[in-house]
Amino acid sequence: MPSADPVLRPQQPGDLPAVLDLTRRAFGAEGEVVAGLVETLATTPIYGTRFVVACEGERIIGHVGLTDGWIDAVERLVPVPVLSPLSVDPGHQGSGLGRLLVERALADAEAAGAPAVILEGDPAYYGRLGFEPAEARGVLRPSTAIPDRAFQWVRLSAYQPWMRGRFVYPDVFWRHDAVGLRDWRRQGSTGLEVSTVTLGARDVPALVAFYAALLGLEAPHVEAEDDWVALRETGGRSLAVQHEPEQEPATWPARTGQQHMQLHLEIRVDDLEAGIAHALSCGATPADHQPQDDVRVMLDPEGHPFCLWVETE
Q1: pTM
Q2: pLDDT tens, 39-78?
Q3: Domain end residue (candidates: 127, 150, 184)
Q4: Both 152 and 254 in a single domain?
Q5: CB 166 within 8 A of CB 134
Q6: Which of its termini does the chain have fewer beta carbons within 10 Å around, N or C?
Q7: Which distant-in-sequence residues (6+ apart) come within 8 Å of 216 by Cβ?
Q8: Is the predicted pLDDT of residue 235 greater than 60, yes or no?
Q9: pLDDT for residue 185 is more than 80
């Protein structure tokens, strides 16, 4: 525990050796990677990183940095600082020092006119400090290596609702492999992911044109004989329209004896047979009609169809 209230001040050039030592000790197994990032940020003015240190007497016991990233919004690029890293001496962890450093960083960002502060970290910890998932507000993480709940932000007084889009890290974070967690995507992985949502339509070109206009996408060329057309660039998943000559408009809310809502999911699998086995174990059943060798049409417990498919050469 600190013996007195720590002094927070801007980092000075002579502080760097102590800061790097602190970073290595605070981050354990990841210490060398994070220390390398800190050293590059501290010695490369182009990144404009603002560091603050916490001192107990002459000893540096805490450290935080803000480096500008950007939201790639439709209107323009929006500079938004990334809070990274946050380092607290192991002997002072749990003392409230981390909160003090985060509050100082947020205050500095507010004073500089930043609309928000972005970070990736433990939502249980940073949620207590006012951070919330950024993707829920339309700010998309720069990599799927970042767990969605870990990609968080705090909105400041300069924030405006149009500030949405993909978040862009400066190149230094990528060069130091300091984006996300390399192994988390394998945790609980089944080898399956949703790839495409397909909507039925009597008039494929008209519905394709509608969704292209609605979503601000370039409408793909559609031939008269096309019975399946995909729209791309829909935020990481594909939306498609499929010809259904007997398609009936859905009734909402659903009523007995009338057409219910209908769509089907197309789910990419690493291995088709393993994907089928997994789906069966979850309660799916295979459809009677199977039109393609590299696709299996399955029915969920409610009878909604979905396709398991595997990429072929």
Answers
A1: 0.69
A2: 999 999 999 899 999 999 999 999 999 999 999 998 999 9
A3: 184
A4: no
A5: no
A6: C
A7: none
A8: no
A9: no
| Residue 218 shares a structural domain with residue 273 | yes
| CATH code for position 286 | 3.10.180.10
pLDDT digits (tens, 9 = 90+) for 248-300: 876 656 678 887 766 778 887 878 999 999 999 888 889 888 988 899 998 88
Could you tell me how many residues make up the chain?
313
Structural domain contains residue 290: yes
Per-residue pLDDT tens for 79-112? 999 999 999 999 999 999 999 999 999 999 999 9
Residue 188 φ then ψ, to 5°: 75, 10
Asked if the structure places residue 1 within a domain, the reply is no
Q: What is the CATH number of the domain that holds 119?
A: 3.40.630.30
Distance CA 147, CA 121 (A): 9
